[in-house]
Write a structure and sequence with these properties.
alpha+beta, Helix Hairpins, D-amino Acid Aminotransferase, Chain A, domain 1, OB fold (Dihydrolipoamide Acetyltransferase, E2P), 7-stranded antiparallel β-sheet, 5-stranded mixed β-sheet
């Protein structure tokens, strides 16, 4: 009977792993989410009934139940070098000339891959099992993030093949898909928390959380892009190595071989036109000499390989009308000018507002209401004004924006930072600052108060029901009931009292 249970558990694990490869690596799922979750639930139930049969590489063991105190630093067996950047076709051709000279014009070809805008990591497998994962760090040493890496469903805990080297280090990029990023920022907005600026920041922040249970909810993904240490040679070319990594069960992004630099350039231009159709953010293409023996001949500089270069896409830009300028007041009293724009499409989203950073920047650009402006994202999600098209300005109607001499929210005194660029409201009773501080205070990273978002905080401050943090805890039901769209508040202890918090339940499947 015991053998039958063990066999059933092994079959369930194999079936789940097989479907993980179909889902994450081959993009060809055969099971619905409900069917997958049913398999996972059955495995979990059997392991709970027979805990002696649980193994570290079981799909149920991805998430640790305990937060860690901090991350240890570990040394990389082979340094994780940076990549030199290039920004135009001419620089790509100069790179090709250097390669040809270094190889004395011997025959060579390239691989071309999308440059994922995420966080570089190294995964160490021993006898096919994941034993350690580390961030790139300074290239020589990185943070041990094994616990958080294990929560990423796209990363196999066990590799599936007969010819896997006993020691294999896989280099790759952890990233957050666009859909997951949009959903995460919406949740943060609803909770009164500041949004992440871009998917890369979101991925990096999620991977460095001390509680892997929260990381598991962030829907991170992974692409393998190279090999570090290997106890036996994996392949003779980079293109062949990527194929083997995919066969081992690791997700690998699309890589294309190019016979010469003309083909490389054509691929870069094509991908630049179609990049917005991808569900992940890329900021360029990575070009590598294909043959490993030629990597050795070309060598490296102090920080980057000579056989590889990144072609960075031009910044995303759009032209629109700046309809007005408003001034926001932050929780520390910082006054920030914001451009309100005629809605325009930029990098797949509708942009209505853009930051002007500070009043020194506003003056440098000479931005005025009614101006035609150029905005860009430059790899960031938050748009910014980068240029004014002066020739389209109405010289008779246009007036410079007046820098505030008083706080636009409370009328209080403002001062410029000594030797700085920021203008601040110094009134300690400023209602705008209070609202911003309250939004920060009630967020998930602080006191974790459900349903207390910006709209409710606005009402509580305007009605003077809340003047300090402590006032939140004295609110009565009858007071809340009189507000517009009154919420059902759930107040939980913050992160320093984690034993009192409702546990975060990660999605067991996808």
């Amino acid at each position: 009977m015991a053998q039958n249970i063990e066999d059933k558990i092994c079959k369930l694990r194999d079936e789940i792993r097989r479907n993980d490869v179909l889902y994450y690596v081959q993009n060809a799922p055969q099971l619905s989410d409900q069917q997958y979750d049913a398999l996972f639930a059955e495995l979990k139930q059997l392991e709970q009934e027979h805990p002696e049969l649980i193994t570290p590489d079981s799909p149920t063991q991805r998430v640790s139940e305990r937060p860690v105190d901090g991350f240890e630093t570990v040394a990389h067996s082979i340094p994780m070098l940076s990549i030199d950047n290039t920004y135009n076709e001419a620089e790509l051709r100069k790179f090709d000339e250097r390669v040809a000279k270094g190889l004395e014009s011997a025959g060579y070809d390239y691989t071309v891959e999308p440059k994922i805008d995420g966080l570089a990591v190294s995964l160490r497998y021993e006898k096919g099992r994941l034993v350690r994962a580390a961030t790139r760090g300074d290239g020589s040493r990185g943070d041990d993030v094994t616990g958080n890496i294990r929560t990423i469903g796209a990363i196999p805990l066990t590799l599936e093949s007969e010819d896997i080297p006993d020691i294999l280090e896989v280099r790759g990029e952890v990233y957050m898909p666009k859909k997951a990023f949009t959903k995460l920022n919406q949740l943060r907005t609803d909770a009164g928390e500041p949004e992440f600026a871009n998917p890369r920041n979101a991925a990096a922040g999620s991977l460095k959380l001390l509680d892997a249970r929260i990381t598991a909810t962030r829907k991170l993904a992974f692409f393998a892009y190279s090999v570090g240490q290997a106890s036996t040679p994996l392949a003779q070319t980079h293109y062949e190595a990527l194929g083997k990594l995919k066969r081992f069960g690791l997700p690998v992004n699309t890589a294309t071989k190019a016979k010469d630099i003309d083909k490389v350039i054509a691929m870069c231009h094509l991908q630049e036109k179609t990049k917005d159709s991808l569900d992940y953010q890329i900021d360029g293409m990575v070009i590598k000499v294909n043959r490993y023996d030629q990597h050795d001949l070309l060598g490296t500089t102090g920080r980057a390989p000579k056989w590889c270069i990144a072609y960075k896409f031009a910044a995303e830009q759009a032209e629109t009308i700046l309809e007005s300028i408003t001034v926001q007041v932050g929780k520390n009293g910082t006054l920030t000018p914001v451009a309100n724009l005629k809605p325009v499409q930029l990098a797949g989203t509708t942009v209505k507002r853009a930051t002007l950073h500070n009043f020194d920047q506003l003056a440098r650009l000479d931005v005025r209401c009614g101006d035609t402006v150029i905005i860009e994202k430059a790899g960031e999600i938050i748009p910014q004004v980068v240029e004014v098209i002066i020739k389209k300005r109405d010289l008779f109607e246009s007036q410079p924006f007046e820098i505030p001499t008083a706080c636009p929210a409370c009328g209080g005194q403002v001062q410029k930072d000594e030797d700085g660029v920021y203008l601040r409201c110094v009134n300690p009773n400023c209602t705008a600052q209070l609202k911003e501080r309250l939004e920060y205070f009630v967020g998930k990273g602080q006191m974790n108060i459900d349903k207390l978002g910006p709209a409710l905080i606005e009402q509580l401050v305007e009605t003077k029901l809340v003047k300090t943090f402590a006032d939140i805890y004295t609110l009565r039901f009858d007071q809340l009931a009189q507000l517009q769209n009154p919420p059902a508040l759930a107040i939980r202890r913050g992160p320093r009292h984690s034993q009192c918090r409702r546990p975060v339940r990660p999605d067991p499947g996808r």
